Amino acid sequence: GRLEAVTQQMGYHPQYLDSFLKTQHYLLHMDGPLPFDCRHYIAIMAAARHQCRYLVNLHVLQFLRAGGDPQWLRGLDFIPPKLRNLNEINKILAHRPWLITKDHIEKLLKISEWSWSLAELVHAVVLLAHCHALASFVFGCGCEQDEGPGGRGSLKPLSPGNQCFCEATAGNSCSQELLRINRKRSLDSCMELDSLRERMQRIHVETEGREETRLLQQEREEGEGQGAEVGARDGRHRPDPSAGLSPLADTDGEVTGATNLACYMQDPDFGYQDFARRDEDQTQVFRVQDYSWEDHGFSLVNRLYSDIGHLLDEKFRMVDGLQSSAMAKRQGCEPSVFKRGIWNYIHCMFGIRYDDYDYAEVNQLLERVLKVYIKTVTCYPEKTNSEMFDRFWKQFKHSEKVHVNLLILEARMQAELLYALQAITQYMI
C-alpha cells in the first residue's frame, strides 16, 4: 500500500518529496470532510480515467484497509449515487477541464438525498486533481509496467534499480540502522498483505455462500413441482466467479486488482482534445490575470478545507524552487526561464494563458521531441511507454528528467484546480 516506486523517483529531490508526502498524507489520512473509504474510492475513479493500474491497485488495498465495502469494487453501478454523481466532473477534469462550469457544481450541491456539501466537494476536487496529476508522473517516470494479456503485471525495477531511497536522496550509502528499519517496514508490509489476502478470501467465500443460500431458499419457495424450471433458472443466475469482487484472491492466493478498469468509469472514449480559442458563445481562454491560484484559488480552498491550501501552495513553490541550473544551461537559458517555459506550455495546452508571457519562447526553449514527451505525459499519460523516459532528451540526467516530470505533475494539478475552483466561485457568487 506504499508508493515505493514513486518515492524512489521523487527521492532525487528530497525537499519536494517531503512536501508531496505531507500533502498526500493529509488528503488521505488526516481529518477532513470526506470519510476515509470514500477518499480512496475517489482516487480509484481518478486513476482509472488514465488506466493507471499502479494507483488503482494501491488505493483498492487502502480502501479495504479503511473498512470500505468490497462490493463497491465491482464498479460504479455498486456504489452510492452520491459518489457515482462525481463521475462527470472526474471525467471532465481529467481530460478537458476547461469544460467545467458552475452548472456541474450546482448539480452536485443541489438539495437532495445525495447532495454534496461545499467542503466535501472541494476535498473531492483536490483528490481528483492530485490523482490525475500523479498518474501523469507514474507513467512519465516509468513506474507503471505495461500490462500483459492477462491484465496483471507487477512493477518493474526502476533506474537506478540498485539504489535505496536514502542513497538517492543523500548521496551516500545506508547505515545499518536504516537498513534494519527498511527491512522491518518490508516485513510489516508483507504481514499486512497476508492479512488482507486472508480477508479477501474470506469475503469471497462468504459472498458465494450467501448467494448459494439465497438460491436454495428460492428453490424451496418455488416448490417441488417446478424443480426443473428452478434448475434451469439456477444455472442462469449462479454468479460468474470472474464477475465477482475485485480484487479477488487468485489460485496462488495473491491479491490482484481489477482486471478491467472500465468498471470504474463511464464514457471511456472521452479523452483530451486540443484546446483552441472558441467563438464568443463557446469556451474562452482562461486568463490567469482574472483568476489565479495566488489571488483566488488559495484562499477559497483553504477556507473550505482547512490547511490544504497551505500544503498545496508549499508544493507549488517547492517545485518552482528546485535547482535546474545544468538542465537550463544545456538549453542556453536561465533556470527560471526554462522552468517557466515548461510550466506555461503545459497550462497553454489546457487553455490557460499569461498576458505577460511571450509564447514564442516555448518553441525556442523546448525541442520538439521534449514538447511531444511533455504533451503525451500531460494530456494522455496512458499512451506513455517506459522506453520514452530513456529515449527522449538523452542529454538530461535522470534527476533532471524527474524534475521535468514534477513540473508536469504540479502544473497539471494547478490547471485542474483553477478551473474547478473558478466554477465553485461562480456558483457561490
TrEMBL record:
Question: Where does it localize?
Answer: Cytoplasm
Give the matching InterPro entries: AhpD-like, Sestrin
What protein name is recorded for this chain?
A: SESN3 protein
Show the PANTHER family listed in the entry: P53 REGULATED PA26 NUCLEAR PROTEIN SESTRIN (PTHR12474), SESTRIN 3 (PTHR12474:SF1)
Q: Which Pfam family, just one, is annotated for this protein?
A: PA26
Bias type Basic and acidic residues, positions: 207-220, 231-240
Phylogenetic classification of the source organism = Eukaryota, Metazoa, Chordata, Craniata, Vertebrata
Reactions catalysed, semicolon-separated, are: a hydroperoxide + L-cysteinyl-[protein] = S-hydroxy-L-cysteinyl-[protein] + an alcohol
Which molecular function GO terms apply here?
L-leucine binding; oxidoreductase activity, acting on peroxide as acceptor
Keywords linked to the UniProt accession:
Cytoplasm, Oxidoreductase
Q: Which SUPFAM superfamilies match?
A: AhpD-like
Q: What family is this protein classified in? A: Belongs to the sestrin family.
Annotated region (Disordered) at: 207-251
List the source organism.
Dromas ardeola
Q: Which GO terms are recorded in the biological process aspect for this UniProt protein? A: cellular response to L-leucine; cellular response to leucine starvation; negative regulation of TORC1 signaling; positive regulation of macroautophagy; regulation of response to reactive oxygen species
Q: What is its main location?
A: cytoplasm
* A single GO cellular-component term on record: cytoplasm
The answer to whether keyword Signal applies is no
